[in-house]
């Protein structure tokens, strides 16, 4: 039954985003796993449109935050304003209070404002003037950043990068895909043509079902071995933290669920590890100078590790 819902969501997104089914599927995987996504790519490849399409497809409350150098933390989380008529302070919520949050060009604002997202992303709550406010469920942040412009930008702190379950890249479309994009936009705006195919309650039910996907001890050991290998790699100064291994396990559960399985396979770990681990690695200066890519390191580690074999039919 759930496969029909996932299929409808993917088909709906593809009405707007052409040729990026894998990225759409990974975004849904992150959403079902309760994580957040960082989209890093050049301008104009559909990052913002993907987030809007996902929010519209599940009928969620969509909020967009355009990050700029002068943005303040209170502009993100909200602020308490004194009402002279009631002689009380009233909380006016910021754009962070929503279901699907687009944090657009997140690296264009100061670390102080970037950190306003941290509590919400990790705890699903925010604190304003000493009062803790629970965020609505589901709460899903998709942040975008431009990797080619560095003037006037602030690199994301490692602590914040670690809170994204995946780091994804859209990439340019093929010629045929780009022609399809132009044809669809010739007489109409594609994003205005799609309707909700999944309710919030249905999504929350799917998230609960994902948690029931079985992860065998051999798979857990495989994930931990991969993380430990990043900590010992000669090109890495800081490897994957336990938060990273937990993120990968949750992502594998969600991906297995999408593939209509009740258990996680080693193939799931191999497929998702580069997306879940690469942005968590801090490379040594020499490795950066030599052009070593974090994705290459993760794939190299996976190629060296012994793949676990299913021991019994218990899953």
- The structure class reads alpha/beta
The profile of the biggest β sheet is: 5 strands, parallel
Distance between the termini: 20 Å
Could you give the order of strands across the largest sheet? 2-5-8-1-9
Identify low-pLDDT runs: none
Put simply, the count of helices is 14
Name the overall outline.
globular
Give the total of beta strands.
11
Mean model confidence by pLDDT: 85
Helix fraction bin: 40-55%
The helix/strand series, from N terminus to C terminus, equals HHEHEHEEEHHEEEHEHHHEHHEHH
State the gist of this model:
With 315 residues, this protein is of the alpha/beta class. It has helices at residues 2-14, 21-33, 47-57, 73-77, 111-114, 116-123, 158-161, 175-184, 200-210, 217-232, 242-258, 266-277, 285-289, 294-304; strands at residues 37-40, 62-66, 78-83, 88-93, 100-104, 125-128, 131-134, 140-145, 166-168, 236-238, 282-283.
Keywords:
5-stranded parallel sheet; 315 residues; alpha/beta; 11 strands; two-stranded antiparallel sheet; single chain
How do the strands and helices of this protein lay out in sequence?
Layout: H1 2-14, H2 21-33, E1 37-40, H3 47-57, E2 62-66, H4 73-77, E3 78-83, E4 88-93, E5 100-104, H5 111-114, H6 116-123, E6 125-128, E7 131-134, E8 140-145, H7 158-161, E9 166-168, H8 175-184, H9 200-210, H10 217-232, E10 236-238, H11 242-258, H12 266-277, E11 282-283, H13 285-289, H14 294-304
Parallel strand pairs: 1-8, 1-9, 2-5, 5-8
Antiparallel strand pairs: 3-4, 6-7, 10-11
Helix pairs in contact: 1-2, 2-11, 10-11, 11-12, 12-14
């Amino acid at each position: 039954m759930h496969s029909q819902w996932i299929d409808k969501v993917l088909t709906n997104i593809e009405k707007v985003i052409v040729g990026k089914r894998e990225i759409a599927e990974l975004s849904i995987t992150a959403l079902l796993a309760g994580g957040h996504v960082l989209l890093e790519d050049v301008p104009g490849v559909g990052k913002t449109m993907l987030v809007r399409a996902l929010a519209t497809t599940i009928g969620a409350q969509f909020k967009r935050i355009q990050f700029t150098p002068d943005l303040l933390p209170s502009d993100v989380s909200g602020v308490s304003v004194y009402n002279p008529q009631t002689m009380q302070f009233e909380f006016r919520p910021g754009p962070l209070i929503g279901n699907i949050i687009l944090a657009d060009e997140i690296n264009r604002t100061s670390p102080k404002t970037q950190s306003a997202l941290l509590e919400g992303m990790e705890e699903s709550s925010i604190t304003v003037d000493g009062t803790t406010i629970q965020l609505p469920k589901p709460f899903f942040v998709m942040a975008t950043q431009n990797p080619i412009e560095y003037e006037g930008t602030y690199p994301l702190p490692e602590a914040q990068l670690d809170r994204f379950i995946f780091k994804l890249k859209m990439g340019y479309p093929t010629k045929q895909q780009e022609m399809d994009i132009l044809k669809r936009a010739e007489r109409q705006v594609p994003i205005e043509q799609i309707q909700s195919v999944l309710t919030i309650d249905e999504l929350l039910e799917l998230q609960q079902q994902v948690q029931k996907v079985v992860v065998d001890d051999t798979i857990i050991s495989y994930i931990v071995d991969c993380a430990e290998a990043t900590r010992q790699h000669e090109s890495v100064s800081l490897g994957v933290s336990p938060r990273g291994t937990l993120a990968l396990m949750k992502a594998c559960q969600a991906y297995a669920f999408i593939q209509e399985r009740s258990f996680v396979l080693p193939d799931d770990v191999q497929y998702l590890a580069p997306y879940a681990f690469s942005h968590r690695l801090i490379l040594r200066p020499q490795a950066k100078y030599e052009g070593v890519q974090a994705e290459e390191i993760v794939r190299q580690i996976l190629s060296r590790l012994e793949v676990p074999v299913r021991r019994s039919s218990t899953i």
